[in-house]
C-alpha cells in the first residue's frame, strides 16, 4: 500500500514537472519568434480614418487607390515564396515607413508575423521601385514645355523678380549607420557624420520632379551637379514652347548659365542685388520644405541605425518614400504648395 502511494506521488510530481517544462519551452519559443497580438490579425476595416492616417499616412480609400495606381500584382510573392494580398502588403510597407517601429512592435499592433512583415514589405518596396523609379528621372511626359511655363508663372506670381525660373534645385544629406568598410568615403566633414547625398528638383506644386542619388557623403554639390548630367538634360528639355530657355534656381554652389541661376555673391552687392537674393531665398525655401515633408511623413528615414549601407538597399529605401511622398502631395497638398 505504501509503495503504491509512493509511486503515485512520484508520477504526479513528474507530470507537474513536465507540464512546467512545456510551459517554459512554449514561453521561450514564443519570445524568440516574437509575440503576436492577442486575437490574431487586426481587422484593418475596423480602423477609423484618423487611425489610418496615423498608422499608414494614408486613409483606407487612398491606400486602395494607391494599390490600383501603382499596379501592384495580387497576390505579391516574396523571395521565400510567402504570398500576401497587395492591399495588406502595401499597408505593411507604409506601417514600416511611417515610424521607426521594430518588427516586433508591428507584430503586436497588427498581428503580422515578424518574418512576414520583413519579407513582404521588402518585396513590395522592390516592385514599386522597379516599376516607377523612372518617374524620378526627368519625366518628359510630365515636364512638358507648357507645364514648365505654368510653373514659372506660379513662381513669378509669388514674388520672383524674373519669370523664367520653373523649379528649385537643392541637395539633401541623409545620415546612415557607420559602415564597417569604406567609412571614409561616406563621411561628411561638414556635417561630421556618415551619410549619403541626394539632389532633387522641386517644382511649385510640391513634387520632387527629378532626383539623383545616392552618392557618397564626402562629395560636394559641384560633383553631384557634374555627375547627374543635368546641364545636358536642361539644355535639351528646359524650354518654353517658343524656345525661350527656362531656369532652375539653386544655392551659391551652382554656376550660372542659361538654364540655372544662383544668388549674387560678393561683399559689395548693390541694393537691387540684395533684394534679388532676398526675394529668391524666400521662394527657394520650398525645396527645404519638400525634403522636410518626406522625413516627417515617413519617420523611418530618420532612424539612422537601420540605414545600413552595404547591407541594405539604402538608396531604394529613400527613393521609394520619395515616390510615395509625391503621391501624398497629390492627395493632401501640404504646406509645400
From TrEMBL:
It comes from the Eukaryota. Pfam families: DDE_Tnp_4. Its cofactor is a divalent metal cation. InterPro entries: HARBI1_dom. Residues 169-302 form the DDE Tnp4 domain. GO terms for molecular function: metal ion binding. Keywords: Metal-binding. This is DDE Tnp4 domain-containing protein. It comes from Choiromyces venosus 120613-1. The lineage of its organism: Eukaryota, Fungi, Dikarya, Ascomycota, Pezizomycotina.
Amino acid at each position: 500500500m505504501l509503495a503504491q502511494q509512493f509511486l503515485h506521488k512520484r508520477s504526479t510530481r513528474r507530470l507537474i514537472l513536465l507540464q512546467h517544462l512545456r510551459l517554459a519551452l512554449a514561453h521561450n519559443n514564443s519570445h524568440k519568434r516574437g509575440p503576436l497580438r492577442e486575437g490574431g490579425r487586426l481587422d484593418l476595416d475596423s480602423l477609423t480614418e484618423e487611425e489610418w492616417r496615423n498608422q499608414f499616412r494614408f486613409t483606407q480609400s487612398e491606400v486602395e487607390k494607391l494599390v490600383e495606381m501603382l499596379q501592384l500584382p495580387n497576390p505579391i510573392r516574396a523571395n521565400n515564396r510567402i504570398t500576401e494580398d497587395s492591399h495588406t502588403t502595401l499597408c505593411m510597407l507604409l506601417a514600416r515607413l511611417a515610424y521607426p517601429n521594430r518588427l516586433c512592435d508591428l507584430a503586436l499592433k497588427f498581428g503580422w508575423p515578424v518574418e512576414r512583415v520583413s519579407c513582404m514589405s521588402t518585396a513590395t518596396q522592390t516592385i514599386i521601385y522597379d516599376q516607377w523609379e523612372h518617374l524620378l528621372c526627368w519625366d518628359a511626359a510630365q515636364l512638358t514645355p507648357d507645364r514648365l511655363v505654368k510653373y514659372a508663372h506660379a513662381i513669378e506670381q509669388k514674388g520672383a523678380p524674373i519669370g523664367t525660373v520653373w523649379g528649385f534645385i537643392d541637395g539633401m544629406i541623409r545620415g546612415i549607420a557607420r559602415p564597417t568598410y569604406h567609412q571614409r568615403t561616406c563621411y561628411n566633414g561638414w556635417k561630421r557624420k556618415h551619410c549619403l547625398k541626394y539632389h532633387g528638383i522641386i517644382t511649385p506644386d510640391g513634387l520632387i520632379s527629378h532626383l539623383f542619388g545616392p552618392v557618397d557623403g564626402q562629395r560636394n554639390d559641384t560633383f553631384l551637379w557634374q555627375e547627374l548630367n543635368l546641364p545636358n538634360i536642361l539644355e535639351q528639355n528646359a524650354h518654353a514652347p517658343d524656345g525661350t530657355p527656362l531656369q532652375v534656381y539653386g544655392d551659391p554652389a551652382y554656376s550660372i548659365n542659361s538654364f540655372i541661376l544662383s544668388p549674387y555673391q560678393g561683399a559689395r552687392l548693390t541694393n537691387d542685388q540684395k533684394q534679388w537674393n532676398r526675394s529668391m531665398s524666400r521662394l527657394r525655401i520650398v525645396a527645404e520644405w519638400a525634403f522636410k515633408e518626406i522625413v516627417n511623413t515617413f519617420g523611418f528615414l530618420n532612424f539612422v541605425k537601420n540605414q545600413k549601407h552595404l547591407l541594405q538597399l539604402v538608396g531604394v529605401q529613400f527613393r521609394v518614400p520619395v515616390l510615395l511622398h509625391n503621391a501624398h502631395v497629390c492627395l493632401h497638398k501640404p504646406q509645400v504648395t
